[in-house]
Design a protein that fits this description.
The chain has 293 residues and is of the alpha+beta class. The protein has two domains: 63 residues; 190 residues, Glucose Permease (Domain IIA) (Distorted Sandwich), CATH 2.70.70. Strands 4, 7, 8, 9, 10, 11, 12, 13, 14 and 15 form a ten-stranded antiparallel β-sheet that branches. Strand 1 and strand 2 form a beta hairpin. Helix 1 runs parallel beside helix 3.
Length: 293
């Protein structure tokens, strides 16, 4: 039995042509093949789109992971730096405690080289000599912060560093103490008076150095103090160097710690060559022996 043709195609022209006949079976087979190809193509397109979406998501995740790793690295570096700063501040706090313990009169050899400004002992009864102690206590309380709170520590580190750097440290000249801070017998009147600084005996011409960085706010001559240099270290702290034989700095100049201010002498009201050394906090003279060690 011959199969009925569903489609007949003639290709050509005039009397020359080619006839193509498609039967039922071939048509069904072609339809099935096309359907299968369509399904496979659709599935392939869907898989490609899904893979492209997953690839974009993977790239986004990798970028986020990279950003998070960079943020973690920065936080770790910040934590390490702040930890080092906290340890340095704790070390400074230990030094401050030792300074409180070392607030004892330092012995000298004899009485040569004494002088400087004085006030009657009775006028010093109301002095606020504990101002510096209160500042130290407040500083120590401020340092008692939660180490985990890195942002709060970071905000306070700069201000604490400036305060600590403004504190004088060390001897302005190597010598022997002839007069301490506090009440003494005046070498000029023989009566009890209050001495506002330390008298350090040294050979005339010995260099006198700054005990902290700062700006020279006075470089001149006074009747009692002779040649005097005053350095402002910031945070309300100043140091005074008096009875100098000569001055090496001018007003307005910035000096570093250890830079020479002048030479030891006996100018002004003095019994011999020595340095009169003062430390002032907010205009109030405090005991310079706290800062010698």
């Amino acid at each position: 039995m011959r199969e009925h043709h569903l489609f007949t195609f003639r290709l050509g022209y005039a009397g020359r042509y080619m006839e193509i006949r498609i039967g039922r079976t071939a048509a069904i087979s072609a339809t099935v093949v096309m359907a299968v190809l369509f399904v496979l193509l659709t599935q392939g397109i869907y898989d490609i789109r899904d893979n492209l979406a997953k690839l974009r998501e993977l790239r986004s995740l990798r970028a986020r992971v990279s950003e998070q790793n960079l943020a973690l690295y920065n936080l770790h570096a910040k934590f390490e730096g702040l930890t080092a700063e906290v340890e340095r501040l704790r070390s400074m706090d230990h030094r401050l405690k030792s300074l409180e313990k070392n607030d004892q009169p330092l012995g000298g050899l004899g009485a040569p080289g004494m002088g400087g400004a004085e006030t009657p002992e009775t006028s010093t009864a109301g002095r606020l000599d504990l101002l510096l102690d209160r500042k130290f206590d407040q500083l120590k309380k401020d340092l008692l912060v939660d180490v985990k709170d890195l942002d709060r520590i970071g905000e306070r580190l700069d201000s604490r560093r400036l305060l600590l750097e403004s504190v004088p440290r060390g001897w302005p000249v190597r010598g022997v103490l002839s007069s301490n801070f506090g009440v003494r017998t005046s070498p000029f009147t023989g009566t009890p008076v209050f001495h506002h600084g330390l008298d350090i005996v040294a050979r005339s011409g010995t260099p006198v150095i700054a005990t902290a960085p700062g700006t020279v706010v006075k470089s001149g001559f006074e009747a009692l103090l002779g040649n005097v240099v005053v350095v402002d270290h910031g945070a309300g702290c100043r140091s005074v160097y008096a009875h100098l034989s000569s001055r090496r700095v001018e007003e307005g100049a910035f000096v570093d710690r250890g830079e020479e201010m002048g030479k030891v002498g006996a100018t002004g009201r003095a019994t011999g060559p020595h340095l009169h050394y003062e430390v002032r906090v907010n205009g109030l003279q405090v005991n310079p022996s706290r800062f010698l060690n």
